[in-house]
Design goal:
By secondary structure, the protein is an alpha+beta fold. The protein is built from ten helices and 18 strands. One of its GO terms (biological process) is regulation of cell shape.
Length: 328
Amino acid sequence: MKKTIALVTGGFTGESVISLQSAEVIDKNIDREKFDVYKIIITPESWYYVDDNAVKHSVDKNDFSLTVQNHVVRFDGVFIGLHGSPGEDGKLQGYFDMIGIPYTSCDAATSAITMNKGYTKAIVDGVKDLYVAKSAMLFENSPEAAVQITESLKLPLFVKPNNGGSSIGMSKVKTAEELPAALERAFKEGSQVLVEEFIGGREFTIGVYKGKEGIQVLPATEIVSSKEFFDFEAKYTAGITDEITPGRMTEEELSRVQKIVTDAYTKLNCSGVVRIDYILENETDHFYFIEVNTVPGQTEGSLIPQQVRAAGRTIQDFYTELLEMILP
């Protein structure tokens, strides 16, 4: 018997555009022989489903149901394809926990913690063979903050919103004079800012998920950008970045990173599929943690679909496994 799935997309932040693109790919690749799918769009103003006749149906938030042509639709599970708030920061997860509907992402606590880059670094610090760059967290922007940063950290630096995604508001700072403008840009995206020392090396990202055979690691992708770093434009504009999947690592490095990211996934209490970004430092061959994305992009050009295909699987089969892991 088919299961009824809500594909949740949209959101409250600038990442909503990417969420809608991800949802198009997810919607196209969910197996319709096993699942009936309703795309639910969440905006600050309303939650709704648009049927084949372009009629908008509001979601009843009391139980997350729909009424379509006098028929009440209730969901067996939710595929979360919403980046940023409220789909990646734990708010939706807490709501679904309260009304008893399972979902494909990490739980509310892990989602909330991992949206905070500083807190996440503190948790993964201690995972064997995983390193974290020296950093400082700021809670307000002031001239004193810039002085404090230059006195405690070595240039160059990365300045990023502590609770943001898609590299929005992120800057690379090479001189002390550039720091105030970078801080101002980051603080426009949120009330907390993380400043990290730059680690010279090759950048990678790798998918990790919990499947029928336990925690599985997808082939890593090596990021080679023509820009200073993998920012929003580099992520979503064709031709700026080369994404090499599988990434160029030795057998020893590959074996080491698979163990590292499995341990990080476990320590963060992750569920579903996540994407962990890291740098392989040039001088030491150390793996440096950048961040974890608990609702990674699923657009046509996104990294997880690339890695799934590199693993010899179809996207449809992968989504089926993610859904079957949460359904009774």
